[in-house]
Amino acid sequence: MNKSxxxxxxxxxxxxxxxxxxxxxxxxxLSFVSQVFAMLLNDVIWLVFWLAYFTRFPLVAGWGxxxxxxxxxxxxxxFGLATTICGNATRLASIIxxxxxxxxxxxxxxVLLHVLISTMSLTAPGDVAFGLxxxxxxxxxxxxxxxxxxLCMITGAVLVVAFTVLTQSLAFWLGNAEGLGAQLVAALINxxxxxTVIFNGIVKVALFYDHSSRLYCLCARAAPAQLxxxxxxxxxxxxxxxxxxxxxxxLLGSTPL
Amino acid sequence: MPQVVxxxxxxxxxxxxxxxxxxxxxLRSYLHTEWHSVEAVHDLSFAxxxxxxxxxxxPNGAGKSTTIKMLTGILYPTTGEARVLGLVxxxxxxxxxxxxxxxxxxxxxxxxxxxxxETFDLLARIYELKPAAYRERRAELVRRFELEPLLATAVRxxxxxxxxRCEIAAALLHRPQILFLDEPTIGLDVxxxxxxxxxxxxxxxxxxxxxxxxxxxxxxIERLCKRVVVINQGTVMFDDRVSTLRxxxxxxxxxxxxxxxxxxxxxxxxxxxxVKAKGYGLKLEVDTDIQPIERAVxxxxxxxxxxxxxxxxxxxxxxxxxMYRDQADSLRMTATPALADGPHGS
Amino acid sequence: xxxxxxALRRPxxxxxxxxxxxxxxxxxxxxxLAYVGELLLRTLFLILILFTFTQLWHATxxxxxxxxxxxxxxxxxxxxxxxxxxxxxxxxxAREIEVDSEVRSGDIAYRLGRxxxxxxFHLGARLGERLLRFGLYLLVGMxxxxxxxxxxxxxxxxxxxxCSVALVSFVGDWIWTFAISVTSFxxxxxxxxxxxxxxxxxxxxxxLIPLSAYPEWLGHIARALPFQYLVYYPARLFVHxxxxxxxxxxxxxxxxxxxxxxxxxxxxxxxxxFVSTQGG
Lengths: 257, 346, 280
Hints:
B: Rossmann fold; six-stranded mixed β-sheet; 11 helices; C: 13 helices
């Protein structure tokens, strides 16, 4: 089998699971619809709060409505996309700890991919809907901006999955790493979700020289804040747009808020 | 003897949504919901006398658990009546709860991360036992159920058999008048099953606690109960003494042999049929009316080099199938004259 | 028929029932203490949140701005946040509400068949867990606040006033949460409702910043709703103890709890008829 055929197969494999998961979610309609709407509303509430906050107490460096909306939109959409397709990412630690990997190991598909895509988070479509909706309605982007938004959503989603897999895999060494994995991801995201201008001193050093978060920050920076909004922040200011794509959502999803 | 449980025409119907097939079918069911009802219990009537042990047996989905849940007041029936200790369970659940106990074989009432003793203490409070009486009762149960070495261990570290002993002891702390046991031996190995059976039997005889036990294991019934009710699809198929059940439907036993040698000549015995013979394995079915089981075993042991032997009852499904055949037979007998006239008349 | 009603044991009165709830509370505490490590791990997130917001409040000059309007210094804002975070993080999140999973798994069968009403059993269990977490979070939060912004003038009176209101608010919060949970007897999933209730508590209750620091329009909405009494008021008492505010907060929380009793009982009574547990 040549490489392109394999790729095609993977595509069909992922698509197949996505379809089956959607079908499964639709079965529990009340549950599904209510979860999607609740998540949508939840995101809206947060956005409203932070919009209100930053309007009343603006950052010295200038942090406006457009930036807040864009970041929330990309963040939610990226996280939503990640957990729509890879719903098991945040459950990986418990799957490993309970020996449920055994179910996937004998099957003729890549184990990690198979585990990740075999469940869909029921709330995730709500996040995607919120992200796209908020961006379209409030920012009213040009087509080129929308294209960039989608690109950021996808790269953000890849990052979310990658980091979650990394931290949840601690379960291989620690046994019960569910709590720790969730908290580590939450920690990482927490630092990336607020404007870096707010951090100073040793934390800043830790943030920017820690390998993984630097990678994360780089990608986040490449993402939307400076590029998408019509009146983008000054591109020279590196710290500026880091309020970014990954997600406060990840935090909210994995911690008892 | 007064009756502690009376059940009249009890019926429970669950409503389930009909799920569409495929995405389109599912979406269509969003607009128009179809329900279909599942009759878990259909017109059930029976009674239990004080101090009696009754087995309620039937295959999976026969309505056994649903019946227990109705009799303990957890589920409301769709129609029908029941009295337990003179109370209507679903109306006087809390008062009833003080006087009965329930053990579900597939669930646990013990606090998973704590030693069973802690749950005992909690139950003493919940069932309002006086401290001195509780200590005495607890010591007695610990001795009988041999729990001493288990009491200080967190429940999650106990084996299923050990845990089940703790579960039943916990249920008996408040000296209930009736003990409901839903599949108490499910998942246990042979030894643990026997232990549990003999403990339940002992409590039934010594303390006069009435026992209603559900099972799909014919072994549970024979060793514990004098009377048995067989239900299938929510209806009573049989309600009589266990000895009657045995005589009528448990006549046939299956003997499974493992031999030390291959291709042995099997002795010809009246009422014994070879079901399967392959390699070292040999499976025989014995009609115990014709050939008592102990004679059959003795005869086989005398001739064959037996390495291992197990004797089993016919599976429950077979017994129920036999009951259906009997019912159909008796129906045909009463219906025959009318039928015989039919074709000619028209 | 026969069994003699007189010979039956009856469940005891109010005092005995309260004793049962207390016993459930205690056993839950002990059960949770078996996993102290996991509990401590959860405080990691609390520490991070406190740290991040400290930085954010500084960066946005929140302290300076708010001080003018409401009299909270930036230190007091952080101590306020310590208390609200302990309040909110100690509650079960929308994914770990037990009633739902008990209905789904059928474990509810045991709990319903006891001479202790199921809601009261649940009250004991939830309170036990919440008190433990609240105490732990408050302690850790106070240490973090000490390190990050230094001490403020805390008084024992403030601790007592705020914690007494918090305790009553736990009961009120539980009553409403349970009322939502019980709808799971007939709707498949109550996650959405729980999520929105908790979010309303956080945002409209004033978890991140005191209501007085809200923009006018949002402040108006928040002040018209009861969520503030469960979050804003106890935290405010923690930082600024005041006897009259305490009376108001305590009364409001009692009213919230009492107001929740009726819907809870109605939904529970109706819900019981709909129970269809797993397994034939």
